Amino acid sequence: MIELLSYDFLRRALIAAVLVGIAAPAVGTFIVQRRLALLGDGIGHIALTGVGLGLLTRTSPTILALVVSALGAVAIELLRVRTRTGGDVALALLFYGGLAGGVLFANLSGGSANLGSYLFGSISSVGTGDLYIIAGLAVAVIVILALFGRELFVLCQDEEVARASGLPVRFLSLLIAVTAALTVVVAMRAVGLLLVSALMVVPVAAAQQLTRGFRATIGLAVVVGVVASVGGLWVSVDADFAPGPTIVLLAMAVFLVAVGTGRLVRMRRTDVK
Amino acid sequence: MTVPFRMTGGEVRLDRRPVLRGVDLTVEPGEVLAVMGPNGSGKSTLIRSLLGLIPLSAGRVELYGVPPARFRDWKRVGYVPQRLSVGGGVPATVREVVSSGRIARQSRFRPFSAADRRAVDRALDAVGMADRARDSAQELSGGQQQRVLIARALAGEPDVFVMDEPTAGVDAASQETLARTLREQVAQGRTVVLVAHELGPMEPLITRSVVLEDGRIAHEGAPPRPRGECARPGHDHVHPHAPAEEPHLLS
User: Fold this and answer.
1) Which residue, A59, A69, B123, B183, has fewest beta-carbon neighbours within 10 Å?
2) pTM for the complete prediction?
3) A183 in a structural domain
4) Is the CB of residue B194 less than 8 Å from the CB of residue B33?
5) A253 vs chain B: nearest CA distance in angstroms?
6) Shortest alpha-carbon distance between residue A230 and chain B (Å)
7) Comparing A8-12, A83-87, B181-185, which segment has the lowest mean pLDDT?
8) ipTM rounded to 2 decimals
C-alpha cells in the first residue's frame, strides 16, 4: 500500500476514499433514521442529468451534477410534503427522467463512454480539480451536521415533536435533502451514482446491529465507511477489480459480520439476565 | 392573562371527512384536563390541533393568545406523542432521547450546558429511568418507553404538558410513576392536557374532563366514573396491561 502512494492518482484516490467514507455514512445515519433510505438513490439518478449536461456543454460534470442534484433534492422534498398519497409515483417520474436525461445528454455529447465512470465510479481517475470539489463538499457536509445535528436528530426521529418544539421543520427538511445531494456528488466518483446510496445506508445498517445510541451509530458507521472505502480501494488496486463494486461489497461483508456479532451479543445479554 | 389554549369553533377534516366539528375549548393555567371518548372520536386530533400539528379547516386556535403558526415560545410546551418513534431502526439511548427535550431551550451554536445536563438528570430521576440512561430506548418495554417520552417533555421544563394517551399499553408500575410525576408538576402550577381511555392512578389529579363523541364535545365537567363510561355503547375498553398495538385509526 505504502509504495502505491508514490503514485499521484492513487494518493488522490485515497484522499477521496477517506472523505467519502466519512461523509456518506454520517449523512446516511440521519436519512435512515428519517426512513428515507432510498433518498440517495433518487438523487443519484437525478444527478446523472447534471453529469450529462456537463459532458454536453464541455464544462465540469461534477459541478453540474452538484447543481442538478441539489435542485432535485429540493424537488423530492417538496413532492414528499405536498403529496400525501401518490408521491412515490411522482418521485419515480423524477428518477427515470433524471436517468434518461443523463444518458441522452451524454450520447449527444458523444462522450457516453465517459458515462460509465460516473454510473459505476472510477476513483482512480479523480483529478486534482475534482478532488478540491470533493474535499470542499465533504467539509461542508460535516460542518452542516455538526451545527444542525441536534435539530436534525429531533426532526428525523419525530417530525411532529420537532414542530411542537418550535424547530423550523421545512428548512431542516430541505437542509437534510440538500446535504444528501452534496454527499451524492462526493461519493459519485468513488462508487458511482448507482451505488452511492449503498455507502449512505450499508455502513449505518451494519453499525446499528452493534450500537445502542445515535452518536455511537454515526461514529461506528463512519468507521465502517472508511474501512470499506479505503479497504475496497486497496483490494481493487491489488487484485485489479473495479473499485466501486469492491467498496460496496466490502461494506456488505462488514454488515453480515455485524449482524452475526450483534445476534451473539444480544444472546449473551439475555443469558446474563 | 392569556390562557394556555383557546379553541373556538374548531373544525378539522382529514381526507374530506370531518373529524372535529365545532369544538370550543379553553384550557386555564393549572388545569389538568382529560380528553376522553371512544376510539375515532377525535381525541388525538383535538390535542394535536391545539398545538397546530393538524391545521383547522375552520375556527381558530390560540396558544397563549397566539395562533400556532406565529407562536414562538415553544419552550413553554411539552408534547408527549402516543409512542416513541423507532426512527428507521437507528438506535438512540434513553439519555439521547431525553436530552433532545432541551431543544426548544437551546441555541444552535451553544454546546450542551451544565444546566441542560442537570435538567436531563432530574427528568430521568423523576420517571425512575436514570439507571437505564445508556440503554437503547427502542429495546425498552412499552411502559418504559412512555416514561422516556415523558422525561423528554420534563427535560424541557415546560409550563404545559400535552400528552397523547400516556397510559395506553403501560404497566401498572409505570402508571404509578406517571401519576406521581404529574402530581409534582401540577403542584408546581403546570397545566396538563391529556388523552386517556382510562385514568387509573391519575384519576384524583384530573380537575376537568371533556368527552368527545364523533368530533363534538358530548360531556364536560368532572371526570366520568369508569362504571358509566365503560357501559357507554361503542366505548372501546382498553386495559392498561393489554398490548399497545391496537388499531388507532383516528384516535
Assistant:
1) A59
2) 0.89
3) yes
4) yes
5) 19
6) 25
7) A83-87
8) 0.90
Residue A86 in contact with partner chain B when CB distance is under 8 A: no
The predicted pLDDT at position B202 comes to: 86
Q: Is A226 on the interface with B (CB under 8 A)?
A: no
* CATH code of residue A16: 1.10.3470.10
Greatest alpha-carbon pair distance for chain B in Å reads 55
Give the domain range for residue A140. Answer: 3-194
Residue in chain B nearest A163 by alpha carbon: B53
A77 has a chain B CB within 8 A of its CB: no
Cα distances (angstroms) measured from residue A247 to each of A114, A209, B241: 21, 20, 49
Per-residue pLDDT of B123-169, as tens digits, reads 999 999 999 999 999 999 888 999 999 999 999 999 999 999 988 87
Distance from the Cα of residue B239 to its chain's centroid: 19
**pLDDT tens column, B57-98:** 999 999 999 999 999 999 999 999 998 987 678 999 999 999
Measure CB to CB from residue A214 to each of B73, B74, B91 and give the nearest one. B91
> Is position A22 within any domain?
yes
Write the pLDDT tens digit of every residue in A141-161: 999 999 999 999 999 999 999
Comparing CB atoms, the residue among A35, A164, A215 nearest residue B79 is A164
Task: Give the containing element (helix H, strand E) for B79.
Answer: strand B77-80
Residues of B within 8 A of A151 (CB-CB) are 103, 108
Q: Nearest-CA distance from A96 to chain B in Å?
A: 26
Answer whether A144's CB lies under 8 Å from A175's CB: yes
Does A80 lie at the interface with B, CB-CB under 8 angstroms?
A: no
Report all structural domains of chain B as residue ranges with CATH numbers, in order of start.
Answer: 5-231 (3.40.50.300)
| Confidence (pLDDT) at B249 | 43
Of B79, B91, B104, Cβ closest to residue A217? B91
Q: What is the count of structural domains for chain A? A: 1
- Number of neighbours of residue B190 by Cβ within 10 angstroms: 21
Of A34, A156, A215, the CB nearest to B96: A215
Tell me the shortest Cα–Cα distance from A239 to chain B, in angstroms: 35
Residues ≥6 apart with Cβ < 8 Å to A165: A154, B74, B79, B103, B104, B156
- Cβ atoms of B244 and B142 within 8 Å: the answer is yes
User: Does the residue A258 lie in any domain?
Assistant: no
Q: How far does B164 lie from chain A, in Å, by closest CA?
A: 12
Residues 186-215 of A with CB under 8 A from B: 204, 208, 211-215
Asked if A32 has any chain B CB less than 8 Å from its own CB, the reply is yes
Query: What are the distances in angstroms from CA A265 to CA A240, A261, A271, B155?
Result: 37, 6, 10, 32
Asked if B166 and B151 touch (Cβ cutoff 8 Å), the reply is no
Spatial distance between the Cα atoms of B75 and A145, rounded to a whole number of angstroms: 23
CB contact under 8 A, A157 and B87: yes
* CB atoms closer than 10 angstroms to residue A261: 13
Confidence category of residue A86, pLDDT binned at 50, 70, 90: low
